[in-house]
Amino acid sequence: MTELLQIDHVSRNFGGVQALTDVSFAIRQDEIFGLIGPNGAGKTTLFNVLTGVLPPSSGHIIFAGKPLDRQPPHRILQLGIARTFQNIRLFSGMTALENVLVGQHSCTRSGVIGAILRNAATRREEAQARRHAAELLDQVGISRHSNTLAANLSYGDQRRLEIARALASQPRLLALDEPAAGMNPAEREQLRELIQQLRAGFNLTVLVIEHDVKLMMQLCQRIAVLDFGELVTVDEPERIRQHPRVIQAWLGTET
Question: Using CA atoms, how far apart are residues 110 and 73, in angstroms rounded to an integer?
């Protein structure tokens, strides 16, 4: 299977604190790949390095054969990596549809001049963008809330909207940071089904950070385990369940 993303000996420090140490693994095209570990393990730091929020102190990241080293976040988005955040970052005063339209910004062509002149090409592009945004809302299951302000959506629907906005940039890799945080068991099961449906429907590769180990075991094809910024192992869920260090640290008797 083709490798879409290679993380090659990546380290990141903050002064004297080593947040990531020599982390290496690859994510295959079209797989759902998980990243687990306790608080402070370096998961979000790795996400931030991957998406250009932070530069690596050393090491390299290769995506679809192109180096991402020190690329700004907007460029990484254009190259095909979109992410959500642990703390939801929607535009609360905009409707659900408008939030998704903002997510399409990296794909539009009209530019400032077109927006000012409102020529025919710009109007066609805007109409197409609105249709696509409406389709994305439907695919994540919240089309009924198209004209609802993001601030007035339920927590679970806000999570779905954030995923729709990320999908609006037409990514090849969708990176989800704690997508099930704050959800009840029924909502988490619905989220698992949604991620699997989106992966198949959009030919996506998905990278997920999540504390819910049970959800990750059901969702992911392979899982990487971080601890104190170091990679413990990368393997299929059943083997992760049996790894002594993983059992001792996080799984306990819940297998």
Answer: 21
Residues in the chain: 255
pTM score of the predicted model:
0.88
Token code pair at residue 187: 């909502």
pLDDT, one tens digit per residue, over 26-74 is 999 999 999 998 888 899 999 999 999 999 999 999 999 999 988 999 9
Six-digit token string for 14: 């903050």
Edge to edge, what strands does the sheet with 81-83 contain?
81-83, 173-177, 205-209, 32-36, 222-227, 230-235
Please name each of the domains of the chain with its CATH number. Answer: 1-80+171-255 (3.40.50.300), 96-169 (no CATH)
Which value, to the nearest 10 degrees, does the dihedral of the CA atoms of residues 86, 234, 33, 253 take? -70
Structure-token pair, residue 104: 């399409």
Phi/psi at 185 (nearest 5 deg)?
A: -55, -40
pLDDT digits (tens, 9 = 90+) for 215-249: 999 999 999 999 999 999 999 999 998 888 887 76
Distance (Å, whole) CA 247 – CA 83: 29
DSSP 167: H
CA 212 to each of CA 45, 125, 179, 218: distance values in angstroms, whole numbers, following the listed order: 19, 40, 10, 10
